[in-house]
UniProtKB/TrEMBL annotation:
<keyword id="KW-0560">Oxidoreductase</keyword>
<feature type="binding site" description="axial binding residue">
    <location>
        <position position="328"/>
    </location>
    <ligand>
        <name>heme b</name>
    </ligand>
</feature>
<dbReference type="GO" id="GO:0051213">
    <property type="term" value="F:dioxygenase activity"/>
</dbReference>
<keyword id="KW-0408">Iron</keyword>
<dbReference type="GO" id="GO:0006979">
    <property type="term" value="P:response to oxidative stress"/>
</dbReference>
<dbReference type="GO" id="GO:0046872">
    <property type="term" value="F:metal ion binding"/>
</dbReference>
<dbReference type="InterPro" id="IPR037120">
    <property type="entry name" value="Haem_peroxidase_sf_animal"/>
</dbReference>
<keyword id="KW-0349">Heme</keyword>
<dbReference type="InterPro" id="IPR010255">
    <property type="entry name" value="Haem_peroxidase_sf"/>
</dbReference>
<dbReference type="Pfam" id="PF03098">
    <property type="entry name" value="An_peroxidase"/>
</dbReference>
<dbReference type="GO" id="GO:0020037">
    <property type="term" value="F:heme binding"/>
</dbReference>
<dbReference type="GO" id="GO:0006631">
    <property type="term" value="P:fatty acid metabolic process"/>
</dbReference>
<keyword id="KW-0223">Dioxygenase</keyword>
<dbReference type="GO" id="GO:0004601">
    <property type="term" value="F:peroxidase activity"/>
</dbReference>
<dbReference type="InterPro" id="IPR019791">
    <property type="entry name" value="Haem_peroxidase_animal"/>
</dbReference>
<protein>
    <recommendedName>
        <fullName>Heme peroxidase</fullName>
    </recommendedName>
</protein>
<keyword id="KW-0479">Metal-binding</keyword>
Length: 934
């Protein structure tokens, strides 16, 4: 299986072989488990009728019911565990060894003896997985497993990845954490599952992040208001002033609150699912470690459907997989110390006590008074009710920096003994299968001897003494004392061989069987914005991970842009530095194509310095040996304005940038034609005429005619339609810069052979502007920087080629300078394409040393870039804002007056138009004006 994963991960994205292989692997994994389950630990509860609530969108119920529309109780909370394997072992229960002895002999993590080094006591995870990875695994486990203390055959959680830890498993749980104020939000930093306070703080911190993510999503859905049906809860519409209609107002408010809440929950759970598939399963398969963006996609969004693998038909977790997800061996050293303290505090006894699990569980349960608003004892709430983001960030940083333990025999901390013993006893009490029976069920070869199961003499001899025959080795013990996989390509979790195979099958079944993660995960249900929000961005520096965006979004300012703690939180930073930065340039290259180049640069901009460092270290392109580099600014543009760094571009916002406008203009005009007044005259007259002519040309070319005779209008009435933003406004300033100013290669349409169309150039200009002017947070910093750097390199390359071409065809630059005069003369008079660049080159003094002259040419290219490229699309964005303002019905009268002035085509009318432009721009200053990229 690992070899198939390696092959698929290295095939191109559009490979037909890769698509077929993935469908085959999904078929195999999905059919490893029966659908529906063959039997249960006890009889399921009677089927619950589908909800009678009528809505125009799909939503999750609080208890997981109605996920399968034909069998509403399938996978519902409160149903019994399924049984996947019916054991045929005839050994009497009294034959099995005492669980205390089993734990001490095969499972317990042993302290070092005086003759041993302390390093032999704790072995870090060989795949570099951090403690935070297993905190998230704990999150998943507690979302689908919640064994009832009174009846251990019942699962109090649903069998779906529905974030039940956050939202709860009943309507009462959900109601306790909701605001019910019309916004669909939850209270600040809350959760419904009382087990959270008994877990390591990193687990609770992750739950809080998803609480904050829900509120962020709800706020965005309300603010965007895609269908125009929501109103602000702070100013609801008054249907009637009489008290008789108060109930109507309240009912409408609650209906809106329910809809926003349910849609936000769908987006939040889908986001959770994406983290499971991309970060968590990516870590299990070692894809992040190997620098691969490919992920196994069991949801069928982009692959052809297979008749053998239905989607959205429900899921029911089994008792065998309950036993499979007890990864206590991976507990880190720091977490082990914390766990011992919790045991002493809750039970009043030391970690070596003989306290039984259920006594401990009931004792712990009694210490929690308010589960819905439970507070971690190590944190205090702010007046707003939220936890400190700095403290949450500190918990997560430490969890990322803390290496998890490796899997294997004798790796479970002694403090977990009551829980481990309870697991062994529970498996026996419900008739659990043996290890070999489970392997046969998974279509794996059964072990023939204890030595084959684990070659370590101490382990397999102890197991043989306890169980006598390999066929008697019970599943729980066999899974966690089995020989572990090495960290080979395709294997990142490195547990036992049986466990690694079963995990993938369960992950496919859990996600593919959930209706709300497959067939009902649509823009209609999640909203268009929500559906786009859950899509992965493989260019964000995280190899397609999704947890990075969650950390930046919910903990703003706590993670430095480019931080390795944020981009790869499931890998220990020291492991990243030693294993990934030290890779040879040949590592990861393959002959299959499609993925070789990205592998060489995945860690290029990664900052693995200590948390809280505000300085961003970056790497030069290609692999280097452990050495960190810093970009050094190359002042070739505006001083304290735009600086260029190794082919990239960075904005230095400084007041001098705005104060030096007049100085730059005087330099540009070379003091000719009475300076700035003449410059403004040229711009308002000659440039205005040129841009106006090109605007009319674009409108004429891009408009389409629509005969509206069928709409009841006269036969001679035809309307012309044009996408004025995409096809006109965005292109006018770009055309002026590309064609008239910089002489960049331009082709007329996408169907012609050549370099770039105007839309292509607009896209590159937009990438530069986004990074400089719209990069307001860490979420998009990496993506904007990467795209901006690529665009800058491409533009500079062509600009330098244009300058070099002019240099070759020019006999005497000084002669051209004398003939042409100033830039102002070029703007105001007759000209040919390329003369502006000749004018710029004329200002460069001739130098006998060719290298020095080339450097000045390069500086000229960057200077032109800094003056023209970053702001070109800002003019388009500003004009789009103006057009949008006056197309609004509330500006109808002003729009008609603008049309009259524009039709006049006189200088006086142009002067009168400007106040309208200023007014529209002034109205948009109160809100962020996004770059319009239609």
């Amino acid at each position: 299986l690992e070899k198939l994963v390696v092959l698929m991960s290295r095939l191109p994205d559009d490979s037909e072989l890769g698509r077929r292989l993935q469908n085959t692997v999904i078929d195999i994994l999905f059919n490893d488990l029966p659908h529906p389950p063959s039997t249960y630990l006890t009889l399921p509860k009677p089927l619950k009728h589908a909800s009678s609530k009528q809505t125009n969108y799909a939503f999750r119920s609080a208890d997981g019911s109605n996920n399968n529309v034909l069998f509403p109780s399938f996978g519902q909370a409160g149903q019994p565990y399924a049984r996947s394997v019916s054991s045929m072992n005839t050994v009497l229960p009294s034959f099995f060894p005492d669980p205390d002895i089993v734990f001490d002999a095969l499972l317990c993590r042993r302290p070092p003896s005086p003759q041993q080094a302390s390093s032999s006591y704790f072995q870090s995870h060989p795949g570099g997985l951090s403690s935070l990875f297993f905190a998230f695994a704990n999150f998943i486990i507690h979302s689908i497993f919640h064994t009832n203390l009174d009846n251990p055959r019942i699962n109090d959680a649903s069998s779906y990845l529905d974030l039940s830890v956050l939202y709860g498993s009943s309507e009462e749980d959900v109601s306790r954490i909701r605001r019910f104020d019309g916004s669909g939000r939850l209270w600040e930093d809350v959760w419904a599952d009382k087990r959270v306070v008994g877990m390591h703080p990193a687990f609770g911190a992750l739950v809080v992040l998803f609480c904050r993510n829900h509120n962020y999503i709800a706020e965005r859905i309300l603010a965007i208001n895609e269908n125009g049906t929501y109103y602000s809860p702070s100013s609801p519409p008054i249907i009637s002033a009489t008290s008789a209609h108060n109930d109507t107002n309240r009912s409408r408010l609650l209906s809106q609150c329910d809809e926003i809440f349910h849609r936000a929950r769908l987006v939040n759970t889908a986001y959770f699912m994406q983290i499971v598939l991309r970060d968590y399963v990516g870590g299990i398969l070692g894809l992040v470690r190997d620098g691969l963006e490919w992920r196994l996609n069991p949801l069928g969004w982009s692959s052809q459907e297979s008749s053998q693998t239905p989607r959205g038909e429900g899921s029911s977790v089994s008792m065998e997989f309950n036993l499979m997800y007890r990864w206590h061996a991976a507990i880190s050293e720091e977490e082990e110390k914390w766990l011992e303290g919790v045991m002493r505090e809750v039970s009043g006894k030391g970690p070596t006590s003989t306290l039984r699990f259920y006594s401990f569980a009931y004792c712990f349960d009694a210490t929690i008074s308010s589960p819905a608003l439970a507070i971690a004892k190590s944190l205090d709430r702010l007046p707003s009710g939220a936890f400190s983001s700095a403290e949450l960030s500190d918990i997560l940083h430490r969890a990322t920096a803390s290496p998890a333990s490796s899997f294997g025999a004798r790796k479970v901390p002694k403090a977990m003994k009551p829980i481990e013993i309870a697991g062994i006893r529970w498996a026996r009490s419900v008739g659990g299968c043996t290890l070999n029976e489970f392997r046969r069920f998974m279509r794996l070869k059964p072990y023939k001897s204890f030595k084959e199961w684990n070659p370590d003499p101490e382990i397999h001899k102890a197991a043989e003494d306890l169980y006598k025959d390999i066929e008697n080795l019970e599943l729980y013990v066999g899974l966690y004392a089995e020989e572990c996989k090495p960290p080979i390509p395709g294997a990142g979790l490195c547990p036992g061989y049986t466990l690694s195979r079963a995990i993938l099958a369960d992950a496919v079944c859990l996600t593919r069987g959930d209706r709300f993660l497959t067939v009902d995960c649509t823009p209609h249900n999640l909203t268009s914005w929500g559906f786009q929000d859950i899509q992965p961005n493989i260019e964000d520096g995280s190899m397609g991970g999704m947890l990075t965006k969650l950390l930046f979004r919910t903990l703003p300012g706590e993670y430095v842009a480019g931080s390795g703690y944020a981009h790869f939180p499931f890998l220990v930073p020291s492991f990243v530095k030693e294993s990934c930065f030290g890779k040879d340039t040949k590592v990861g290259e393959d002959k299959l194509g499609g993925r070789g180049q990205p592998k060489l640069n995945i860690w290029r901009n990664l900052n693995i310095s200590a948390p809280g460092t505000c300085e961003v270290d970056v790497r030069k392109r290609g692999w280097v040996n452990q050495e960190m580099y810093k970009w050094e600014a190359l002042d070739v543009g505006i001083k304290n304005g735009v600086g260029f760094k190794n082919g990239g571009v960075e904005l230095h916002m400084c007041k001098d940038f705005f104060l030096q406008y007049e100085a730059r203009m005087r330099l540009l005009t070379k003091g000719g034609m009475n300076g700035l007044d003449s410059y403004h005259n040229v711009v308002s007259c000659h440039l205005h005429m040129e841009l106006s002519s090109f605007t009319h040309l674009l409108i004429s070319e891009k408009s389409i005619q629509c005969n509206r005779h069928n709409a009841g209008l006269p036969a001679d009435v035809n309307d012309m339609f044009v996408d004025v933003v995409k096809d006109v406004i965005n292109l006018v300033p770009v055309y002026w810069v590309v064609n008239n100013m910089l002489m960049l290669p331009l082709k007329a349409s996408a169907s012609l052979r050549g370099m770039y169309t105007l839309q292509d150039w607009y896209g590159m200009f937009s990438d530069v502007s986004k990074y400089l002017y719209f990069n307001n947070g860490q979420v998009n910093d990496w993506t904007y920087r990467e795209k901006g750097t690529r665009a800058t390199s491409e533009i500079i390359r062509h600009l330098k080629a244009s300058l070099a071409e002019i240099c070759k065809s020019t006999v005497s630059l000084s002669l051209i300078y004398r003939e042409i005069g100033s830039v102002l003369a070029w703007l105001g008079g007759s000209k040919e394409r390329g003369e502006f660049l000749k004018e710029v080159l004329s200002a460069i003094p001739a130098d006998r040393q060719r290298d020095a002259y080339d450097i000045q040419i390069e500086h000229a290219a960057y200077s032109l870039f800094s003056e023209l490229i970053p702001t070109a699309v800002l003019f388009a964005s500003a004009m789009a804002t103006v057009v949008d303002y006056y197309l609004d019905d509330r500006s109808r009268d002003a729009c008609q007056e603008l049309q009259r002035l524009a039709a006049a085509k006189s200088p006086e009318a142009n002067v009168q138009i400007l106040p309208y432009v200023y007014k529209a721009l002034g109205k948009s200053l109160s809100c962020e004006s996004p770059l319009i990229t239609r």
